[in-house]
Each structure stands twice: as C-alpha cells, then as structure tokens.
Amino acid sequence: MQNLDVIFSALSDGTRRAILQRLMQGEARLSDLAKPFDMSQPAVSKHVRVLHDAGLLVIEKRGRTRHCRLNASQMKVASDWLADYQSFWTQQFDNLAQHLATVKK
After folding, report:
1. What stretch of H or E contains 98?
2. Which of 11, 18, 32, 36 has the maximum number of C-beta atoms within 10 A of its C-beta?
3. Starting from the edge strand earliest in sequence, which strands make up the sheet with 65-70, in order?
C-alpha cells in the first residue's frame, strides 16, 4: 500500500502526468522531455526523479545522455486499485437510478 501512496503522489502533479503522457509515445531523452515545459532542465530532472522513484519510468544512461521510458507495470498497480472502486460506484449509480425511477412514479 505504501508503494501505491508513492505512485499517486507522483501522479498528483500535472507536469509529471504530461511527462508520462509523452513517454506513452516511446522512449525520449531527458533533454527532449524538458523542451515543452517553461522550467529549467534541473526542475524537469526533479520531476523525472520523482517518477523514477515511484517506478513509473526507467532511466538509462547512454554516454552523456539519459533516456527515459515508461514502466507501465507500476501504472497498472494504480489502475487495479482504482478498478476495485469502479464496481462500487457503478453499483451506487445503479441503485440511485432505481431509486429515482421509483420516486418519479
């Protein structure tokens, strides 16, 4: 459960979610990940480090550059946890719909 806290904490920031969204297209150099953001390279590196520490991406050093790629297995951990609540909310909305149908009659 502690790992789940780290994952959701990492996902709580819009910049980090945007980085992960970019990595869904494929591997990228750290310098390329930083280009779309209005922040310094070190600031983007900190975001990447948080994602790496949460296990959401892998960093590989090749020569002088660092390459990042998505680690979707950790995203699945969060998705699986949320899926448990999906069935709960589906049942709650079904119950509400049934209640509203009987009230209208």
Report:
1. helix 72-104
2. 11
3. 28-29, 65-70, 57-62
Tell me: pLDDT of 103 over 90: no
Domains of the chain: 2-104 (1.10.10.10)
d(CA 11, CA 63): 29
Residue 82 tokens read as 């949320």
Q: Degrees (nearest 5) of the Cα angle 84, 89, 93?
A: 155
Mean pLDDT of the chain: 91
Task: Name residue 57's beta-bridge partners.
Answer: 70
Whether 11 and 17 have beta carbons less than 8 Å apart is answered as yes
